[in-house]
Amino acid sequence: MEDETIKGLIELLLLETQAKGRNGKAYVSSLLSALSAHYIQNYSNYRDLQDASAKSVKIGKSQIDKKYVLWVLGVIIWNYGFPIVPPLYDVIMAMLLKHILS
User: Fold this and answer.
1) Contact by Cβ (8 Å): 10, 4
2) Domain spans of the chain, in order of start
3) DSSP string of 69-99, one letter each residue
4) What is the pLDDT of residues 69-102, one digit of tens each?
5) Are 102 and 70 in contact (CB under 8 A)?
6) How many helices (H) and strands (E) does the chain have?
7) Is 25 in a helix, a strand, or coil?
8) pTM of structure
């Protein structure tokens, strides 16, 4: 094995196994956590997947803000344009506007 960190952590795990868990569960758990973290950081594509996921967001913050502003304006126009309608219609119109602007 070429990676000295992994080799050392595995050796520590083997020694702990031979000592029949003398150092306790917390020690074994910390060894496994260190081994997992080292492997993920150095040998997996986990960070690449996170970066790709962050880049694949299709709607920017400015687009969300524009849609929200349009929705609020639509609700305000509806409420001032039709002040006599029952509240149920206000809710229905707000939901309809939301779906139109999505």
Assistant:
1) no
2) 4-55, 61-101
3) HHHHHHHHHHHHH-TTS-HHHHHHHHHHHHH
4) 888 888 889 888 888 888 888 888 888 888 887 7
5) no
6) 5, 0
7) helix
8) 0.46
